[in-house]
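Q&A FORM
Asked by: J.P.
Topic: structure of Glutathione binding-like protein

PROVIDED:
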Amino acid sequence: MFAKMDARLKDHDWLVGDAFSLADIAWIPQLVVLGRAGYPFAQYAHFERWKNTIMARPSFKQAITD
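REPLIED BY: S.T.
REPLY: Here is the structure written out as tokens.
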């Protein structure tokens, strides 16, 4: 699944195009859980960029890390 997402994110900023959407929001719980479990996201460069962009959003920081 992550390989498919990585391929999609190669040409797009977000999962369904160029706008942050519910598709991106729906993946946030998985990012948090898998990240804490040590999942090797770094092997998917475009996915990693997308993940880092989400994690840098003020709403992510407020809802998850604060």
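FOLLOW-UP: The chain has a mean pLDDT of 92.
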